[in-house]
């Protein structure tokens, strides 16, 4: 009865052990790459908004004492 020998030759269970499928999923470093998405952090460091607040150019215009210098044109008095 070589029939019992046939089932013993069922190497299929060994092939199941070679199911590296779960291991490949473990190697799915894609989620880790997402954590490394420092782009969001780079946006937080967008100090450009702060630089705009420091736009003292508007203040420099207010200090345009040139208009005052014109009022001080005492040249009219000399005439």
From TrEMBL:
<feature type="region of interest" description="Disordered">
    <location>
        <begin position="1"/>
        <end position="79"/>
    </location>
</feature>
<protein>
    <submittedName>
        <fullName>Uncharacterized protein</fullName>
    </submittedName>
</protein>
């Amino acid at each position: 009865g070589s029939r019992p020998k046939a089932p013993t030759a069922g190497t299929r269970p060994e092939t199941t052990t070679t199911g590296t499928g779960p291991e490949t999923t473990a190697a799915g470093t894609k989620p880790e790459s997402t954590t490394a998405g420092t782009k969001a952090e780079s946006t937080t460091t967008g100090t450009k908004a702060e630089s705009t607040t420091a736009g003292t150019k508007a203040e420099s215009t207010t200090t345009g004492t040139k208009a005052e210098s014109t009022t001080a044109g005492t040249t009219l008095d000399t005439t």
